[in-house]
Task: inverse folding
């Protein structure tokens, strides 16, 4: 089965580009949800931006707790796809959906009722509190839609179909671009909801994308067929998937928690610094999307090649991906450095002081973006091989051993003040990348074999044997 659609053979660079480019565009469009919110809410002023800025890390934390579990589905689907076991792929898809949707309902309820407490703990000013709580509560109501689409996208990525999610996201983002100003500022029979309106618009569009995703999987025409039989709980597999996905959840949660702890530190310097951090963080999350795309593509390619028994090719994929990530993000960082002011002004026009503070934050970070790209690509290789614990440890080192302690010391115990927070980012980026390279070079990540470690239920194994015998 040699050909352009076979990621286990042929040009590695071509496979990386073929997979990563649609993922990058889909990620860019998905990030447009937050960027669109920031853009329109910015028209309401600095207080409104601060409300969204303080809400985002907390929402991201809750999403991360469940979202990391879908990574288990991506990894297993990729490896069994490489092994050409279609029945196992369908069974894993059903179990992934079951696990993540149950978790999403629980987290949605917790997030909704705890929103006021979360915001209170952040110690924000009174003029920011109410908007932050309303934005957060509405966002948590729509968590199940977000999780449903997240699983769909992860499963599609596992089998190498990255174009279908791209088309869906493109349509829903365009719709969100229209709905955001309608619900924020009001029009005709739609009331002006202010900051909360941005969350309402996002929920509506994410609900549509979730429904479309489920329909596609139920039809079974895109390499995965979701059917009711595969939604019956397979306790043994669910436990294995949870053990595989839980470190990824903790890793993402650790990142989100790191953002929240940084918010505590940033908020102590006032609303202006908080707004600058919020805008700068959103811009950073948008700029690193090429690295995220490469990381996800690397996970899929490494997983499929390991499933096919091609470990040397999997290692070559990781090396080429990390080099590509470093070069691409370095070039992006150089451009961002020179246009930091103009980029910041897009999000909060007319607020000169906020623009200047944001631009300074971006410039300080920009020239080390390449190290982020390198680290994320190698983390993708670790995940694709089933070693989800390694990225977790590296994340803890990056955020808790490096970034936050450095930021705290420089901002609170030197004359640098908030400038010390900004400087902590590039220092942590470089050191974390070096540690990641050393760990990759050790080669211990190549020893895991998920398709041997994880055995499916007897029923699924029997159906697979029958199906292969008939074929």
Result:
């Amino acid at each position: 089965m040699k050909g352009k659609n076979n990621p286990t053979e042929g040009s590695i660079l071509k496979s990386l580009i073929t997979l990563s480019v649609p993922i990058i565009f889909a990620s860019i469009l998905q990030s447009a949800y937050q960027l669109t919110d920031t853009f329109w809410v910015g028209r309401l002023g600095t207080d409104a931006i601060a409300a969204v800025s303080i809400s985002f890390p907390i929402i991201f934390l809750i999403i991360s707790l469940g979202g990391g579990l879908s990574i288990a589905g991506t990894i297993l689907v990729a490896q069994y796809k490489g092994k050409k076991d279609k029945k196992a792929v369908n069974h894993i898809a059903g179990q992934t959906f079951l696990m993540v949707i149950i978790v999403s309902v629980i987290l949605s309820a917790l997030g909704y009722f705890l929103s006021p407490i979360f915001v209170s703990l952040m110690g924000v000013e009174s003029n920011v509190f109410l908007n932050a709580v309303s934005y957060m509560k509405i966002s948590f109501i729509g968590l199940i839609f977000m999780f449903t689409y997240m699983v769909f996208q992860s499963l599609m990525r596992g089998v190498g179909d990255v174009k279908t999610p791209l088309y869906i996201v493109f349509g829903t983002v365009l719709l969100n671009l229209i709905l955001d100003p309608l619900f924020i500022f009001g029009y005709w029979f739609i009331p002006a909801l202010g900051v909360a309106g941005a969350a309402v618009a996002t929920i509506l569009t994410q609900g549509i994308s979730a429904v479309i995703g489920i329909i596609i999987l139920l039809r079974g025409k895109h390499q995965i067929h979701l059917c009711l039989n595969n939604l019956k709980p397979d306790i043994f597999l669910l436990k294995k998937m949870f053990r595989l996905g839980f470190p990824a959840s903790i890793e993402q949660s650790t990142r989100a928690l790191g953002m929240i702890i940084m918010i505590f530190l940033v908020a102590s310097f006032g609303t202006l610094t908080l707004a600058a951090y919020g805008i700068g963080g959103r811009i950073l999350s948008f700029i690193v999307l090429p690295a995220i795309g490469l990381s996800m593509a690397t996970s899929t390619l490494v997983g499929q090649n390991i499933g096919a028994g091609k470990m040397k090719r999997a290692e070559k994929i990781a090396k080429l991906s990390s080099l590509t990530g470093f070069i691409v993000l370095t070039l992006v960082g150089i451009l961002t450095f020179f246009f930091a002011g103009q980029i910041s002004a897009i999000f909060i026009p007319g607020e000169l002081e906020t623009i200047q503070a944001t631009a300074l934050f971006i410039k300080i970070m920009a020239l080390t973006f390449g190290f982020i790209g390198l680290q994320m690509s190698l983390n993708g290789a670790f995940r694709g091989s089933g070693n989800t614990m390694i990225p977790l440890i590296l994340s803890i080192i990056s955020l808790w051993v490096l970034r936050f302690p450095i930021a705290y010391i420089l901002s609170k115990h030197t004359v640098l003040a908030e400038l010390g927070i900004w400087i902590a980012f590039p220092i942590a980026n470089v050191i974390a990348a070096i540690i990641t390279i050393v760990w990759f070079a050790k080669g211990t990540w190549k020893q895991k074999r998920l398709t041997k470690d994880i055995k499916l239920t007897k029923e699924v194994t029997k159906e697979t044997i029958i199906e292969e015998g008939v074929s």
